Amino acid sequence: MALNRDIPLVRREVLEGPYLLLTFRHPEVARDARPGQFVMIKAGASAEPPLRRPFSILAVDPTHGEFTLFLKVIGAGTRALDALAVGGLAQCLGPLGQPFTLPPAGSEALMVAGGYGIAPFLMMSRELTSAGRPGRVFLGGRTAADLPLREPFARIGMPLVATTEDGSLGVKGRVTLALGAYLDEHSRPATLYACGPDAMLHAVAQLAESRGLPCQVSLDPWMGCGVGTCLGCVVWVRKPGELRAKYRCACTEGPVFDSRHVVWA
Amino acid sequence: MGVKLAVEIAGIRFKNPLLAASGTFGYGVEYEGILELASLGGIVSKGLYLEARDGCPTPRLVETPSGLLNAIGLQGVGVRNFVRDVLPRLARHDTRVLVNVCGDTVEEYAEVTRVLDAEPGVSGLEINISCPNVKKGGMAFGGDPGMTFEVVSAVRRVTKLPVIPKLSPNVGDITVFARACEEAGADALSCVNTLLGLVVDVEAQKPRLAFGTGGLSGPAIRPIAVRMTWQAARAVKIPIFGIGGIASASDALEFLIAGARAVQIGTANFVDPGVYERVLAGLTDYLTRHSLSDINQVVGTLAYPGDKPTGEAGE
Fold first, then answer.
1. ipTM above 0.90, yes or no
2. In the A/B pair of chains, how many CB contacts fall below 8 A?
3. Which parts of chain A have pLDDT scores under 50?
4. Which residues neighbour B127 within 8 Å (Cβ) at sequence distance 6 or greater?
5. Which of A231, A235, A251 is the mutation pick for testing B, counting most B CBs within 10 A?
6. Of A88, A97, B108, B262, whose CA is between 20 and 30 Å from B305?
7. Domains (ranges, CATH) in chain A?
């Protein structure tokens, strides 16, 4: 159940470039959040920018009642959060949305992320490794500076394949190329998970389709409310047994959808 | 302590003067578990036609300074699905339900009204003659006094429920429309819907919203909405729900002092689901500070330059 609270920032860690980690105290989010869920959050009660912003939950610490977000500071909402001092309050509602469903036994979880789309996969990796389940992360970006969050995966022993389009880090090329190569070499059962730009999600969905693999994608349309009332974040989705696609709220029926149900633009 | 916040409008008793505005609170049930629906005076449903609608293409929302421009286009489940699936759930909460009635034609407004007329869970009907994001109906009706009269009359003929037209701010003189509604038999008015706006993507040289123009809401429009509420309140005898950018007790009080009997909170629902709790606490505090015992004592107390002072507040 999502809870609306004013929550204190307890820690901020600045990473390379425009990236940072913000840790807040919110016992319900820390206790209840599942991988792929998000919070709607805003720094303070200031008038600008008017709306809260959705962020995937990077990590939770139920013992201390804390959760952490991974931010790329790019606009007014993230700038305001960046300016929040430790001890300052944010307005937060969460956890929200439908989480990823972990793979069936014997199926390897292949998590494909573009840039800051890596956020939901740390919590998921922790769940997988602590359960002794196989998994692998494919993290792509234009250049090395787009991939600041690799070390936490190494720490928990989750294999991570980095790719950059300019070859400045890891494998040169798009992340879907590395994923395709991996699938070519390994014929064991796998479940694909993807979070990142729409074009990447669509490419991963096509790859999954061509290999006959199940695939869950986390969509990131512009959201106003996070609870299904503003109807700003709707996406065309057609579920089995439906004659035609319907506009569905990514905040409540997603952000995670079965890739076969999404009507790709 | 012990102040009275209840208001009565068009025979409907609301436990407090705060309602959730149409289009900003879904069908109400979306907020079950997030806030206590019984803490609201009432809920105005998302606009409903006879049939389900997809609404506008995306993008549908863009932030503006202290505001939000939207073109949702009345996506909805259709009135019969609402009656079957939503009304029974809303009945579990001790709050009033007003249904926002839409139509492409005068006949459709009357048809939707007939479906709702016999429903015990419905306290009143808000008539949407002011949505700026549909090609037919909506603002096309609310922008013409003759059509306004015709739609409200048609609804009036087929229901005994309170009829509350929601006025458009996209008109020159709102008093003309307020009077047309009163003459057509409206029981109250909602003032106002969103202001027509346009945000341009300068890199792409096209509108930021897929529909093109949209409706502007939020604190950015509040002074305009307060002014129109004040004008309408002076022009008609029927009571008024003030709407437009309310996010605090002070904002709500502006409308009440300007002549509204109750207010609807809109865009602030998206920003903070805790807004009702805050505003109610602020209203109670205001009454206490001013040694008043009843929120109705605040209504219409605006001392406007040049007006003769009135002895009693309200009526």
1. yes
2. 87
3. none
4. B100, B101, B109, B151, B152, B155, B163, B164, B165, B166, B186
5. A231
6. B262
7. 3-96 (2.40.30.10), 100-218 (3.40.50.80), 220-265 (2.10.240)
